[in-house]
Amino acid sequence: MLSAQAETHLPGICPESLEVWPMAVAESQVVLSDALRLVEIEGRGRGLVASQPLKGGQIVLRDSPILTYSAFPLKQRQPQVSGLSYSRYCAHCYRCLVAGAAMLTCPSCSHPDDGAFCSPKCQSLALSSTHTSWMCRALSYLRNCPPLVDHQSDELQVQARYLVAAYSLAMVSSLAFQTLLSLDGGGAQGGEKEAEVALFLHSIISSLPFPEGISPPSVEMTMALLAKDRCNAFGLMEPFLENRERSVRAYAIYRNASFFNHDCLPNACRFDYIDTAIDGNTDIIIRMIHDVPEGREICLSYFPVNVSYSERQRRLLEDYGFSCHCDRCKVEANWSNEDDSGGDETMEEEDDENMEGSEGENNEIEPEGDDDFPHAYFFVRFVCDRENCGGTLAPLPPSNGRPSDVMECNVCGNLKKDEM
Ligand SMILES: C[S@@+](CC[C@H](N)C(=O)[O-])C[C@H]1O[C@@H](n2cnc3c(N)ncnc32)[C@H](O)[C@@H]1O
């Protein structure tokens, strides 16, 4: 149920221009854009609702990251992929670095992955934001830390990267760091394993060479930061290839996009255009999949929609701390295990971790299209049927107020005519 309370207008959505939103902000409704209002929703914390009737394809949010970090383990070189014209990613904007092309490096570390930039602009921005001299020293310290790089999983090394990025953010912009802290950390209590991981990471992070006058963080702060990451990070995926499993190239945390709650049949989905030449290539763009009336909650799916019921419930509970009772789950909860099997239950580690880490994977549900599956229409109309894709289709944005009948896939980028 949505609370009906007074509205507060905020300026634009660029993180630098905004004040921090403490949890208490949800006591009033906040107008986020022409299209969205932030409200408190019983049992779900804050959420975003349509502040006017919304059209399929309409862009309801564009948001720049407050923090990004590489998804590659510390010591391993980013893979050279045969048959591709790129091999690595810019350490600031994460665009593909074209193999053989001249690139710029960090003057201190010249690290071939962590200190390689695609342009003078990225190099200069990185040195004052994403690759400051402290960050450069911290990453080098981590790469030379055998207990971390020789004995811990890739996943844990990436979490160490995140913590370094978060503490670097605190030094660069306390406002942005406060914003990060104001995000939901989810209801997941985290088991003994999570606590052990957090303690280990904390022991490494607190021994980093912090600048004079800055004391190392508390263990509670490290734990809180890890929870924010688990709940709010979006995976920036590698380019789509039909014959290759896509994985994550980097993670990004967005302030406003973090307010979207989950639904297993979402009415909006994310697009990004990371390899294009536009400024703000790591921005996230949220577009409506279909029309919705004013007042309806706008939800994303936190992972590909073609994941089985049991797998969805497991991920939502483990990573986000809630059980989903959406319309689709209510139907699928009554299916037998066989109906639910949906194929291979094995998940890629990266996909398992964060919001929409990957769209399109093998743990799929086959739409049956009969009375047992009233949501079959969604799969037929809004799920990409291209080999190895499984992304979500949304119409192109309306032009001159007229809806588009061309659907774009948010994974492979394919365009196809909407036949409905
Ligand atoms: C990315 S945040 C979404 C915004 C969050 N509700 C807030 O207050 O900032 C993810 C968290 O929202 C809550 N959430 C999201 N979708 C939900 C749902 N369908 N049912 C219940 N809680 C949900 C869970 O606590 C989850 O860990």
UniProtKB/TrEMBL annotation:
PROSITE patterns cross-referenced by the UniProt entry: SET
Region listing for Disordered, in residue ranges: 337-370
UniProt xrefs under CDD domains: SET_SMYD
SUPFAM superfamilies: SET domain
Lineage per the UniProt record: Eukaryota, Viridiplantae, Streptophyta, Embryophyta, Tracheophyta
Source species of the chain: Carnegiea gigantea
Residue ranges annotated for the SET domain, each copy included: 34-303
Pfam family name, one: SET
Designated name of the protein: SET domain-containing protein
